[in-house]
Design a protein that fits this description.
The protein has about 190 residues and is an alpha+beta fold. The chain has a single domain, classed as Jann2411-like domain (Jann2411-like fold, Orthogonal Bundle). It has helices spanning about 5-10, 20-25, 40-50, 60-80, 90-100, 125-140, 175-190, and strands spanning about 25-30, 35, 100-110, 110-120, 145-150, 160. Strands 1-2 form a two-stranded antiparallel sheet. The longest helix is centred in the middle third of the chain and has 22 residues, at about 60-80. The radius of gyration is 19 Å and the shape is elongated. About 25% of the residues are buried. Bound molecules: zinc ion. The site of zinc ion (ZN) has 9 residues, from loops. Zinc ion binds near residues 150, 155, 157, 170 and 176.
Length: about 190
C-alpha cells in the first residue's frame, strides 16, 4: 500500500539519524533530477513520526529554518565524508539551533531518582534542536568516520558505511554502483574502438 510512511521508507529514509534524513530531504534520483521533500507535508509528517520528534510547524519561517539547517548539515556531511572536522561556521550555526530553553525535572525510575532535562516548550524549535543534536551524537561516536556521500555526482545521497574497511562508495550497488560500472565499461569501449 502506498502510504506516506511507505514512501518515506522506500526512498531510504529512517535509517541512520534524523540529521541524515534532513540533509537527504533534497534528493537527486541518480540521473540528476531533484526532489525537495521539505515541501511535502506528508514527508515531513513521516519524518517526524519515525524519529518521534517534537511537532514541526508548517509555517514559512519554520520551513526557512529547516532549509538553513539542511544546508549546514549537508556541508557538515561533506566535511566528514572527506575526513575533516567541522568548521567554526558550522559549529556556531549548530549551537544557535541547539540553544533552546529547557528545564530540569525530578523523575523516579526503577533504579531511583534522577534529574532529567526536558524542553521548556516542545515545539518546532525543539524539533530542530533534536535534529541538530543527532549530528552531535554522530560526532561523539565512531560513526563520524562512517559518513559517506554517494560517489555518483547525480545522486549525492548521504549514508552510513557499515563495512569494516570503510570501502562503500555508492548508496546502492544495484543502482548507483551499477551505473558507474556501465559508464566505465562504455568509456573503455570508446577508448578501444
Ligand atoms: Zn547514489
Amino acid at each position: 500500500m502506498k502510504t506516506p510512511q511507505n514512501v518515506f521508507y522506500a526512498h531510504g529514509f529512517g535509517k541512520a539519524a534524523p540529521w541524515v534524513d534532513l540533509a537527504n530531504s533534497e534528493e537527486w534520483d541518480g540521473f540528476g533530477k531533484r526532489t525537495d521533500h521539505l515541501s511535502d507535508p506528508e514527508w515531513l509528517a513521516a519524518f517526524q513520526k519515525h524519529w518521534k520528534l517534537a511537532p514541526l510547524s508548517h509555517g514559512k519561517s519554520s520551513r526557512l529554518r529547516l532549509l538553513k539547517l539542511r544546508a549546514v548539515l549537508r556541508r557538515a556531511a561533506q566535511k566528514l565524508a572527506a575526513g575533516h572536522g567541522l568548521g567554526a561556521g558550522e559549529i556556531s550555526k549548530l549551537n544557535h539551533v541547539l540553544n533552546v530553553p529547557m528545564r530540569q525535572r525530578l523523575v523516579q525510575r526503577q533504579n531511583g531518582w534522577r534529574a532529567e532535562l526536558v524542553p521548556a516548550k516542545r515545539d518546532g524549535n525543539w524539533a530542530l534542536a533534536e535534529i541538530a543534536a543527532s549530528l552531535t551524537q554522530t560526532l561523539a561516536g565512531q560513526d563520524a568516520q562512517r559518513v559517506r556521500i554517494c560517489a555518483n555526482v547525480d545522486c549525492r545521497w548521504i549514508f552510513h558505511d557499515p563495512t569494516k574497511g570503510g570501502t562503500k562508495r555508492w548508496c546502492n550497488e544495484r543502482t548507483c554502483g551499477n551505473r558507474a560500472r556501465v559508464r566505465r565499461a562504455r568509456a573503455a569501449q570508446k577508448r578501444s574502438a
